[in-house]
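Translate structure to sequence.
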C-alpha cells in the first residue's frame, strides 16, 4: 500500500480481514484432525488392555502348566513331579502335610512311568527317576465305617549303591508341630523345637546326641497327619538341620544297619490322615482288634495293679560290696518304719551276682538270702532281680558259653570267636545270642534255679541300648538292626517269666511289663526332662511307663567316672548329706521331684524321705502318699482299662484333653486321663508358675476354689511343700 493510500480505517479493515481469513482456514481443517487428542487416549487404553490380556494369558499358561505337572492321586494327594513336591490334604481341603521327596537327587530330573515288569498289580502308582530311584504310591484299603483314618503307602527303591532315599517334611509352611519318634539331648516336646543331625534311629545315650532308650518309628503332627516307618528301613532322622523340616533317610552303615536286607537301600513308610490329631492317634494305637488284656492271666493283672498302687523300692548301691543281706533287710525296715508307704516291689540291681552273667547269687555276700527273701515276703514285699543278656569275661559262665557257642560272634570272623563289648561295671563282656535255640533253655535253667532256691517273684530286664551291642556283632539268625535284639529277647521270655520292666524298647512289651524312662541324674535340668520324655513315650504307644527314682538315679549314662575303680573308692564331697555313702539329692529338688512323681504311673524310690531328718519333708511325703492313695491311684487303675483296650497312655499330653493351639507347646504339665491336670514346679527357688487349664470347670487342688478353663493363669502361687493340680468338675457345679 502506498503512503498516500494508508489510513487508520484501512488498517482496521486489514486486521479484520486477516481474522476472518484465519477463522475461515480453521473451519476448513478436517474433522478427524481436530479430534486427534481424544484418539490418543483411546489408543493408550487399548494398549494397556492388550498388555493386561497378554499378562493374564501368560499367567494362566504358567498356572495351567504347573497344574498339568501336578497330578492328583487318591483325591487327597497332589504330587508335582519336576519339583518332587507332595502335598496331602484332609477332607476339608486343608493342607496337613508337605514334603520334598528324593532330596538327594541333583537337579530336576524327569520322572517316567515304570516299565511293565516293575509295576505292581495292587493299584500302586509307579514312577522312576532313571538309574536313581523307583517310587511307589498306594492308597491302603480301610473301612470308613470303623474310623475316618486313611493311609497311603510310600515305597522308595534305590537303583544303585550311591543313592539314598531321602524325604523331608516341612513344618513351617504348613504351620504344624510334630510329636513322637523319641527323645534326645536337643530334642524335647514338640520335636520341631529342637535339632539333631542325621543319626541312625536306634536306641542310645541322649547325652551323646543319640536317640534315647525307647523309640518308635511313628511321628504325628498337630493337623492330623502321621508317618509310620517300616521297621526294615535303615532309618536315619534329622530335625531342623538347615531348614525347618524333619527328614527321613534310608542308608546302610557298618553297625546300625550293617545287615543289609536288600541290595540297595529301600525306604517304606505310611502316611495316615484323619479328621484331627486326637482321633488319628487313637486310631493308630487302638488295640481293639487285639486288646492288650487278651491272654493276660489273673496273676499278670494283679502285678500290673500292684505296680500302679504300690511303690518300687530300688536298691542300687554304686559298689558291689555294699549290697548284702543286711543292706536289703535294713532298707525294708526303714520303709516299714516310715509307717505310711506301702510295701511294693523291692528291685535289686545286678550286684546280686558276683559278676554280670553269673546268674547265680553271690554266696559270699548273701549267705542267708533265702531267709531274707522269706522275711520280705512276710513283711508284704515282693522281690525282683535285675538281669542282663551280657556275660562278663570275668564271669564263671563265660568259658561255658564260649565253648557251647551261645554268644554273639564277630562278623567276618570265626563263629567260635565271641564279639565283646563294654557294659556298665564290666569292662569286657559277651552277649548271649538269643537267636540261638540252645541259649534260651540255658538261661531259663539258670533263672529257674534262682527262683526255686530263693523264691524270687519277678525280674527286671536291663537290656542296655543298641550301642551296647558289639560293633561287629553277628547272631545265628540275622537281625534287622541292633534294637531287634531286645525285642526278640523280651518276647522270648515274656510268657515264661514274670517281668515287671524293661530298660529299653522299640516295640510294646506284653503287660504287666512296664517300659522304663532313661536314668536321670539328680539335677533340676534332668527333672525338667522327665515330663517331656514320659509324654513322648506315651504318644509312641507305650501306655505303661516307669519313671526313675525320686530325686534322680544313682547310676545314669555318664556316671561311669563315679563307678568303682581298682581301688574301690571314689572321692565324695564331705559337705553333702550322705545315704550309705551316696550323696542325697538337694532337698528342694527332692521335694519337687516327689510332688511330680505322686501323679506318675509308678513311684520309684531309692532315697527315702526320712533320710533328710527334716519334718517338713516327712510331713509333705505323708500328705502326698495320702493324696496318691485316695485320688491318683483309683484314677490310674480306671484308665488302665483304656490303656489295655485302646492304647491310650495313663499320663497324657494336654492336646489329648483340649483343643486348640495352646496345649501343643505345653511341656511341663500333664493329665491323668481327662480328669486331672498336674502342673508341678520344676525350677529351683520358684514358688509361682504359668498354668494352662483346658476348657471346662476345674477345682484347684491347693485351695479348693473353682477355676475357669481354656486360659492361662499367670503367676500362679505354688508353695514349696505343695503341688499344683486341678480336678475336672461338672460345668453346672458353679451354680451350686
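Result:
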Amino acid at each position: 500500500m502506498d503512503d498516500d493510500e494508508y489510513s487508520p480505517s484501512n488498517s482496521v479493515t486489514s486486521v479484520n480481514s486477516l481474522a476472518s481469513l484465519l477463522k475461515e482456514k480453521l473451519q476448513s481443517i478436517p474433522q478427524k484432525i481436530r479430534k486427534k487428542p481424544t484418539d490418543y487416549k483411546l489408543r493408550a487404553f487399548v494398549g494397556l488392555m492388550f498388555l493386561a490380556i497378554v499378562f493374564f494369558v501368560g499367567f494362566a499358561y504358567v498356572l495351567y502348566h504347573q497344574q498339568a505337572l501336578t497330578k492328583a492321586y487318591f483325591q487327597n494327594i497332589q504330587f508335582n513331579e519336576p519339583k518332587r513336591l507332595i502335598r496331602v490334604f484332609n477332607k476339608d481341603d486343608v493342607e496337613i502335610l508337605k514334603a520334598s521327596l528324593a532330596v538327594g537327587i541333583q537337579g530336576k530330573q524327569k520322572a517316567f512311568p515304570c516299565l511293565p515288569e516293575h509295576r505292581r498289580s495292587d493299584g500302586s502308582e509307579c514312577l522312576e527317576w532313571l538309574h536313581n530311584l523307583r517310587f511307589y504310591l498306594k492308597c491302603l484299603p480301610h473301612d470308613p465305617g470303623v474310623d475316618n483314618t486313611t493311609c497311603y503307602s510310600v515305597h522308595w527303591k534305590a537303583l544303585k549303591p550311591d543313592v539314598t532315599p531321602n524325604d523331608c517334611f516341612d513344618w513351617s509352611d504348613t504351620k504344624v508341630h510334630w510329636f513322637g519318634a523319641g527323645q534326645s539331648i536337643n530334642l524335647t516336646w514338640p520335636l520341631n523345637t529342637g535339632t539333631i543331625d542325621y543319626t541312625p534311629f536306634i536306641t542310645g545315650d541322649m547325652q551323646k546326641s543319640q536317640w534315647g532308650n525307647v523309640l518308635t518309628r511313628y511321628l504325628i503332627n498337630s493337623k492330623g497327619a502321621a508317618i509310620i516307618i517300616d521297621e526294615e528301613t535303615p532309618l536315619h532322622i534329622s530335625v531342623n538341620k538347615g531348614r525347618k523340616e524333619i527328614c527321613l533317610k534310608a542308608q546302610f552303615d557298618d553297625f546300625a544297619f550293617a545287615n543289609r536286607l536288600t541290595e540297595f537301600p529301600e525306604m517304606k513308610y505310611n502316611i495316615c490322615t484323619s479328621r484331627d490329631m486326637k482321633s488319628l492317634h487313637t486310631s493308630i494305637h487302638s488295640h481293639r482288634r487285639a486288646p492288650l488284656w487278651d491272654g493276660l492271666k489273673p496273676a499278670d493283672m494283679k502285678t500290673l495293679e500292684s505296680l500302679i498302687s504300690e511303690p518300687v523300692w530300688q536298691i542300687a548301691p554304686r559298689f558291689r560290696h555294699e549290697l548284702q543281706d543286711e543292706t536289703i533287710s535294713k532298707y525294708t525296715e526303714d520303709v516299714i518304719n516310715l509307717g505310711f508307704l506301702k510295701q511294693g516291689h523291692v528291685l535289686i540291681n545286678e550286684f546280686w551276682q558276683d559278676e554280670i552273667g553269673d546268674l547265680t547269687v553271690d554266696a559270699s555276700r548273701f549267705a542267708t538270702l533265702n531267709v531274707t527273701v522269706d522275711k520280705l515276703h512276710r513283711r508284704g514285699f515282693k522281690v525282683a532281680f535285675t538281669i542282663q543278656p551280657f556275660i562278663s569275661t570275668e564271669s564263671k559262665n563265660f568259658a561255658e558259653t564260649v565253648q557251647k557257642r551261645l554268644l554273639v560272634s564277630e562278623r567276618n570272623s570265626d563263629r567260635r570267636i565271641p564279639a565283646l563289648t563294654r557294659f556298665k561295671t564290666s569292662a569286657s563282656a559277651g552277649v548271649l545270642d538269643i537267636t540261638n535255640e540252645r541259649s534260651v533253655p540255658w538261661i531259663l535253667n539258670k533263672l529257674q534255679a534262682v527262683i526255686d532256691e530263693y523264691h524270687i517273684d519277678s525280674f527286671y530286664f536291663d537290656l542296655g541300648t543298641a550301642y551296647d551291642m558289639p560293633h561287629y556283632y553277628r547272631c545265628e539268625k540275622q537281625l534287622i538292626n541292633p534294637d531287634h535284639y531286645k525285642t526278640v529277647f523280651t518276647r522270648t521270655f515274656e510268657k515264661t517269666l514274670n517281668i515287671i520292666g524293661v530298660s529299653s524298647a522299640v516295640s510294646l512289651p506284653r503287660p504287666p511289663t512296664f517300659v522304663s524312662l532313661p536314668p536321670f541324674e539328680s539335677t533340676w535340668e534332668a527333672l525338667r526332662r522327665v515330663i517331656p520324655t514320659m509324654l513322648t513315650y506315651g504318644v509312641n504307644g507305650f501306655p505303661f511307663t516307669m519313671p526313675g527314682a525320686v530325686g534322680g538315679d544313682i547310676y545314669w549314662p555318664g556316671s561311669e567316672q563315679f563307678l568303682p575303680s581298682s581301688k574301690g573308692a571314689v572321692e565324695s564331697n564331705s559337705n553333702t548329706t550322705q545315704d550309705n555313702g551316696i550323696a542325697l539329692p538337694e532337698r528342694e529338688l527332692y521335694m519337687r521331684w516327689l510332688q511330680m512323681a505322686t501323679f506318675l504311673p509308678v513311684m520309684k524310690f531309692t532315697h527315702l524321705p526320712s533320710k533328710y531328718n527334716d519334718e517338713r519333708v516327712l510331713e509333705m511325703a505323708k500328705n502326698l502318699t495320702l493324696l496318691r492313695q485316695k485320688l491318683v491311684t483309683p484314677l490310674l487303675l480306671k484308665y488302665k482299662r483304656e490303656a489295655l483296650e485302646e492304647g491310650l497312655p495313663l499320663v497324657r499330653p494336654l492336646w489329648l484333653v483340649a483343643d486348640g493351639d495352646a496345649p501343643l507347646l505345653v511341656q511341663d504339665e500333664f493329665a491323668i486321663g481327662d480328669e486331672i491336670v498336674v502342673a508341678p514346679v520344676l525350677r529351683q527357688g520358684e514358688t509361682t508358675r504359668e498354668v494352662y487349664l483346658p476348657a471346662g470347670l476345674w477345682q484347684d487342688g491347693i485351695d479348693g476354689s473353682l477355676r475357669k478353663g481354656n486360659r492361662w493363669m499367670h503367676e500362679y502361687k505354688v508353695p514349696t511343700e505343695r503341688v499344683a493340680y486341678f480336678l475336672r468338675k461338672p460345668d453346672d457345679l458353679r451354680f451350686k
